[in-house]
Amino acid sequence: MELYGYPLKAKFNQPRPPPPKVLPATSTMTANYKNRIPYHPESFSMPWMPNSYYKAAALNPTLSPLTESFPGLPPTKIVPLISERPNGVFTRHTLDDWHRSNLTNYKESETTRHNAERLRADLNRTIKDVYQQAKRTQGESTKNLGERVNDIEYWKSELCIELDAMIRETNSLADMQKRLERALADTEGPFQVAHKCLLNREKRMGIDLVNDDVEKQLITEIKIIRSCRERLQQCLDTVNSQLMCNKEARQELEKDLADKQMGHHIDSKCYQLKNTSRGIHFFKGVERIDATVSVPETWARFTDNNIFRSQSARATSAKLRASTESLLMGTADEMWRQFSKVNDAFTSRITEIANAKSKIQTHLAKTRQEIFQIETKIQVIQKTIKDKEVQLKVAQTRLDERTRRPNVELCRDAAQIRLVQEVNEINETLRNLHQCLRASEDMLQMLVRSKGVLEHDLVVKNNSLFIDQERCMGMRKSYPSTVQILGYV
After folding, report:
1. How far apart are CA 81 and CA 29, in angstroms?
2. Which residues 6+ apart lie within 8 Å of 128 measured at CB?
3. Which is it for the CA torsion 272, 276, 278, 280, positive or negative?
4. For tag attachment on the chain, is the N or C end more exposed, with fewer CB atoms within 10 Å?
5. What angle do CA 128, 134, 138 make, to 5 degrees?
């Protein structure tokens, strides 16, 4: 076997003569060396090339005469001039050179790492100083923004309290207006509510479209409302005027609250911004723009005036409601009795639907939890497959690199055997992981189908519950109007 990196044997040379028993004459040795390849150690570190071989073979070496310091050897101890290495293989370097080279590389690596550690320490100190200064400056701005956010939260809470009170008062006065209008229109309002409830319940889907007790009570209520024809005329114009005043005050509060919420949102966003937050950009010259239109004193005074106007309107509205309360008591009893029956029927039906919905949601939650766990496992398996593929790449890359070892270095050593075993083990693991992945994906599809069935049933129940609880009961909170005045609701 020819070793890579060594010159080929020149088969065109003459066969080597047998070693002489004594040293020949100098002229004879010179003649014999003309057809031999001179020994050049540096030439064996390069790939074999025919031109360089012929060039080296064309040299004519000469031998110097023997001196007194080297008188020669006895005939019985003459060393033959034949290489004792098989196939003409020459040693490139000594083992000491190999160890010395390794030690030199180790020392250079240690020196480089030490310098890198010193540089990293200096950089860490510089970066720490920069971060501390930026943190102090940014902390002061953050503190001011936090104080501004607290001020906005205070006035926003005051506005919310007043707005809630105004909304309640406006709703109460609107209920009063509706009661008066129903009385003037021969109790047309409750009739329309009952009629709308029947129409809304016609929008139920599937198995929930049943003729239940709620529907029967609604039909009875329509008949009773038609018999209530008492008329009410007082205070209707006054109530309408006061409602307009309440709405104007409410609009001012809502506008101010919307501005406060927007300002609070913006300042809270600015307060929560960090160096790692998304959406931060450069805005050159923005610090020179001043778009402010108020100062803290005028800003606080504006909100305080809005609250005062709202409180005045609420006081007037409360007095007006008290003056009209006695006008509605006569029509309350009969409408309330049927109203209560219908509401009880609605409550009973809503409870049944809510229980069915709760059971469906329980099963759906369990199914979704199982889907989540299966999806999590699929992600874990996929990540494990990727990690194993990276490990497989490393092992196969090692094996591929080791195939480039020269000559006798291509040894089937323990590292080679373990690398081959590692590749086989990883391949087997990957096959098992892919099987687990397919099984998990199949189970996920089954769970998704089961979830779809439950979700469809839940949509049906939600639709029925929304119609009964939100649409129907939402409208029935203010009908009949006199019921609320008498305190039955």
Report:
1. 10
2. none
3. positive
4. N
5. 140
Side-chain half-sphere CA neighbours of 182 within 13 A: 28
How confident is the model over 291-314, as pLDDT tens digits?
Answer: 778 888 888 889 999 999 999 999
Amino acid at 269: K
Other beta carbons within 10 angstroms of residue 260's beta carbon come to 21
pLDDT in tens, 419-436: 888 889 888 988 998 998
Contact 481, 328 (CB under 8 A): yes
The DSSP secondary-structure symbol of 293 reads: -
Q: Which amino acid is at 404?
A: R
Instruction: List pLDDT tens digits, range 102-115.
Output: 899 999 999 998 98
The closest of 378, 319, 376 to 169, measured between CA atoms, is: 319
CA–CA distances in Å: residue 199 to residues 55, 78, 214, 349, 465: 110, 127, 13, 17, 15
Enumerate long-range contacts of 284-292, CB under 8 Å, 24 or more apart.
none
Q: What is the mean pLDDT of residues 134-143?
A: 81
DSSP letters, 401-453, are HHTT--GGG----HHHHHHHHHHHHHHHHHHHHHHHHHHHHHHHHHHHHHHHH
More confident residue, 92 or 36: 92
- Identity of the amino acid at 287: E
**Angstrom distance (rounded) from CA 40 to CA 376:** 67
The 8-class DSSP code of residue 278 comes to: T
Closest to 232 in 3D by CA, of 172, 192, 185: 185
The C-alpha atoms of residue 55 and residue 7 are separated, in whole angstroms, by 13
Peptide bond into 480 cis (omega under 30): yes
C-alpha–C-alpha distance, residues 27 and 43, integer Å: 27
Burial tier of 485 (Cβ tally within 10 Å: 0-12, 13-18, 19+): buried
What is the length of the chain? 489
Q: How far apart are the first and last CA of the chain?
A: 106
Cα distance between residue 467 and residue 231, in whole Å: 32
Residue-wise pLDDT tens digits, 15-28: 555 544 444 444 44
The C-alpha atoms of residue 321 and residue 176 are separated, in whole angstroms, by 7
Query: With 80 as the cut, is the pLDDT of residue 246 above it?
Result: yes
Distance CA 199, CA 221 (A): 14
pTM: 0.38
Helical H segments across 228-331, by residue range: 236-272, 296-324
Side-chain-facing half-sphere of 398: CA atoms under 13 Å: 14
